[in-house]
């Protein structure tokens, strides 16, 4: 809820602050577009010459740039400047250099791909650091407080009546110095000098490297293999003899770390994608290599047990509890308890630590090997967590190598997403910021220079011009481009311009395009409309030639929940069983559908098929998966300690089949309030559900209920506006 005196104080603070800001206008007149460097006053004092050199090189590229410096007190001050420049000077993007406030966003997890942390726990951990606060000028937020331990962080709720989709008006990047013992202003100077050099290099994007770490895509080969084919569609120059694309997977070598580092040190490397797990301080590039004999198996198991005991120690377990765990080796696993020997021996710890270091890239590794890949994409969790004093993506841009921009995530990120969407625009001259602007999710950010661009591989095509300004006439013409990602940019623009007939246009593209990346973009934009075309196109998507689209279709069918999907899902499980991620997702999501429809579809499909050897075993697998819906009956047991856990679980597994029993809980004033609040939150994720209108009607009923508490009414209102399309 907004508090008038807080807003008034904010306005007064902003007004006073604006008087002290210095805005340095570019020498040349702003015609088509402009850019802004936003920095703090001390960074400007220390690094002013380098910042001016940076804006000078942008001016040579036809991008006049403002410089704004100030001792910033609140994110609202920064946003006011951006709004003013956007309105008066056609601002296309900004870079934040130095000490710029960080907006920590709450009640906005639906803008992320995967982050669903309980917001009642530690605010610093359960909020999302996001510059969408600055990029999307239409989003509305309610200020909550400043973090007392992390004063650069400010907490906001997404306002109830805010737009519920992200449509970035500008792009942004962050150059936030690390607190790692080196001078922060020297870090900024080093970065600016090397990115200026890259702007002057005339470099084309023709050298590419991709690594897929252990656990990414559940190690599925059928999920990994299509990346090369989609990149051929997006950037044919990488495969024309002059260009070079290299693909590495975690199990090609026992310890691929050195090979990855050597690749990243290549002086000619332009673009790198690393699909992996991650933390702010580590890239998990591989895991335990396979063992092939009994002795190696045993050594690996001993190592695993030592690591397990050390984890227990870190969690505060006492000596007696650890001894009980060791005793399990004999009583439960029937092996000698000496397998745990050395778990607390310093010498053994050191050897195990070295073994562990061989499976990840850490902060100091990055500084030491000086990466040269000009741009990197970390399809991983937390590698771009800029609220940290020191973090992986920061180490890359502040290294002595040529890396100038990293696209990474501030929190965890979904693996089942298209990490290389519209990358082809980069090979055709789009600025990195132009490309990133189309990735409208909360957690993904550019660390480094968002204006960096490669010289177009086609002198007749300049993607930056198309990306810069949304123009319906140009977008319609671009739909026939020979380049797949130019078509994708055109579809995005027409979607955001509310082009008449956009749904039918997207359907036509999905049905007729030979390009995988075009079909995916059309389908993902249809998802935002969530109309009949979207619901109907999921059926042919389930048999698309591309594994990712098939996998995406399974998940989206579960979000819609129509019983008519069930026979198609069961048939896909039988016919596409070698696509592990597709088959796995089907077993995960079958419980959301009506039980009778699932049972019937299983019986009919297995009665007809001749495609599987042990039909009965496979049939039982599906029946067992479907039966997991029974566990959700815990929601209706008021004595169950698992009620709230199962309710929260519906943010991922949307139990449409239980809706008739769930809706009365929303309206029951005698029900536990915390349960109702969690249920409102869970049902707010049912945006594509065929029961969406029923949920909205229940919300309206509660909003009008005079007996309902204010907290419940607000939850009902928030869910209603989340679902309203």
Describe the model.
With 725 residues, the chain is an alpha/beta fold. The chain has 6 domains: 4-175, Gingipain r, domain 1 (Rossmann fold), CATH 3.40.50; 201-287 and 362-448, Rossmann fold (3-Layer(aba) Sandwich), CATH 3.40.50; 294-357, no CATH class; 470-521, no CATH class; 530-636; 637-723. It has 32 helices and 18 strands. The strands form 3 sheets. The chain has an 11-stranded mixed sheet with strand order 1-3-2-4-9-18-17-16-12-10-11, sandwiched between helices. The chain has a 4-stranded mixed sheet with strand order 6-5-8-7. A hairpin with a 6-residue loop joins strand 7 and strand 8 (153-158). Helix 20 (502-512) runs parallel beside helix 22 and helix 29 crosses helix 30 (673-683). The longest helix has 21 residues, at 294-314. The radius of gyration is 27 Å and the shape is globular.
SSE arrangement:
Layout: H1 4-20, E1 22-24, E2 34-40, H2 41-60, E3 65-70, H3 75-89, E4 91-97, E5 102-106, H4 123-126, E6 128-129, H5 132-135, E7 141-146, E8 153-158, E9 171-175, H6 184-199, E10 207-212, H7 221-224, H8 226-234, E11 244-249, H9 257-264, E12 271-275, E13 277-279, E14 282-284, H10 294-314, H11 319-331, H12 346-357, E15 360-362, H13 363-369, E16 375-379, H14 392-397, E17 405-409, H15 424-427, H16 432-437, E18 444-448, H17 463-468, H18 472-478, H19 484-496, H20 502-512, H21 516-529, H22 532-541, H23 547-560, H24 566-575, H25 580-589, H26 595-608, H27 615-626, H28 643-649, H29 659-667, H30 673-683, H31 692-703, H32 710-723
């Amino acid at each position: 809820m907004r508090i008038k005196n807080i807003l008034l104080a904010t306005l007064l603070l902003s007004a006073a602050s604006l008087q002290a800001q210095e805005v340095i206008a570019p020498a040349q007149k702003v015609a088509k577009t402009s850019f802004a460097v936003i920095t703090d006053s001390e960074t400007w004092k220390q690094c002013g010459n380098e910042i001016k050199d940076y804006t000078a090189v942008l001016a040579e590229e036809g991008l006049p740039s403002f410089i704004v410096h100030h001792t910033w007190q609140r994110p609202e001050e920064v946003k006011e400047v951006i709004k003013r420049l956007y309105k008066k000077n056609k601002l296309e993007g900004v870079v934040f250099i130095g000490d710029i406030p960080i907006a920590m966003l709450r009640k906005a997890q639906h803008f992320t791909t995967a982050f669903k942390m309980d917001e009642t726990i530690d605010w610093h951990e359960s909020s999302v650091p996001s510059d969408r606060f600055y990029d999307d000028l239409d989003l509305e937020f309610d200020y909550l407080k400043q973090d007392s331990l992390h004063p650069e962080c400010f907490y906001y709720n997404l306002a109830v009546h805010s737009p519920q989709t992200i449509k970035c008006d500008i792009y942004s990047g962050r150059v936030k110095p690390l607190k790692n013992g080196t001078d922060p202003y020297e870090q900024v100077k080093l970065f600016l000098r090397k990115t200026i050099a890259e702007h002057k290099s005339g470099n084309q994007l023709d050298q590419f490297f991709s690594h897929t770490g252990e656990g990414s895509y559940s190690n599925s080969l059928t999920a990994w293999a299509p990346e090369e084919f989609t990149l051929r569609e997006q950037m044919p120059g990488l495969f024309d003899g002059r260009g070079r694309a290299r693909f590495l997977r975690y199990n090609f070598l026992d310890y691929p770390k050195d090979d990855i580092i050597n690749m990243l040190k290549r002086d000619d490397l332009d673009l790198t994608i690393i699909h992996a797990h991650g933390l702010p301080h580590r890239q998990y590039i591989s895991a335990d290599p396979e063992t092939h004999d009994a002795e190696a198996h045993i050594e690996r198991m001993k190592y695993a047990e030592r690591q397990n005991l050390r984890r227990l120690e870190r969690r505060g377990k006492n000596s007696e509890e650890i001894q009980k765990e060791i005793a399990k080796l004999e009583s439960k696993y029937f092996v000698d308890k000496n397998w745990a020997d050395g778990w607390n021996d310093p010498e053994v710890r050191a050897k195990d630590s070295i073994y562990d270091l061989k499976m990840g890239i850490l902060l100091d590794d990055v500084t030491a090997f000086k990466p040269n890949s000009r741009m990197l994409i970390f399809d991983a969790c937390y590698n771009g967590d800029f609220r940290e004093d020191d973090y992986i993506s920061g180490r890359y841009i502040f290294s002595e190598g040529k890396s100038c921009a990293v696209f990474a995530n501030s929190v965890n990120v979904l693996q089942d997403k298209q990490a290389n969407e519209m990358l082809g625009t980069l090979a055709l001259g789009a600025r990195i910021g132009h490309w990133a602007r189309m990735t409208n999710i909360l957690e993904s950010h550019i660390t480094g220079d968002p204006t960096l661009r490669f010289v177009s591989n086609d002198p007749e095509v300049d993607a930056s011009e198309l990306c810069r300004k949304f123009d319906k006439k140009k977008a319609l013409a671009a739909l026939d481009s020979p380049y797949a990602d130019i078509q994708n940019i055109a579809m995005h623009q027409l979607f955001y311009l509310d082009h008449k007939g956009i749904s039918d246009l997207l359907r036509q593209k999905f049905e007729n395009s030979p390009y995988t990346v075009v079909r995916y973009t059309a389908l993902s934009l249809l998802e935002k409309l969530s109309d009949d075309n979207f619901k109907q196109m999921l059926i042919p998507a389930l048999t698309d030639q591309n594994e990712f689209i098939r996998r995406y279709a399974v998940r989206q069918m579960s979000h819609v929940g129509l019983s008519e999907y069930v026979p198609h899902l069961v048939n896909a499980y039988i016919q596409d069983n070698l696509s592990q991620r597709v088959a796995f997702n089907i077993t995960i999501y079958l419980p959301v559908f009506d039980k009778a429809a699932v049972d019937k579809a299983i019986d009919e499909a297995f009665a007809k098929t001749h495609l599987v050897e042990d039909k009965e075993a496979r049939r039982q697998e599906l029946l067992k998966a479907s039966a997991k819906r029974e566990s959700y009956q815990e929601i209706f047991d008021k004595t169950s300690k698992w009620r709230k856990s199962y309710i929260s679980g519906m943010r991922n597994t949307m139990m449409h089949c239980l809706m008739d029993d769930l809706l009365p809980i929303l309206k029951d004033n005698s029900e536990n309030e915390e349960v109702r609040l969690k249920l409102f939150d869970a049902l707010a994720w049912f945006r594509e559900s065929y029961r969406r209108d029923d949920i909205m009607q229940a919300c309206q009923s509660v909003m009008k209920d005079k007996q309902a508490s204010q907290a419940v009414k607000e939850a009902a209102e928030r869910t209603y506006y989340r679902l309203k399309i």
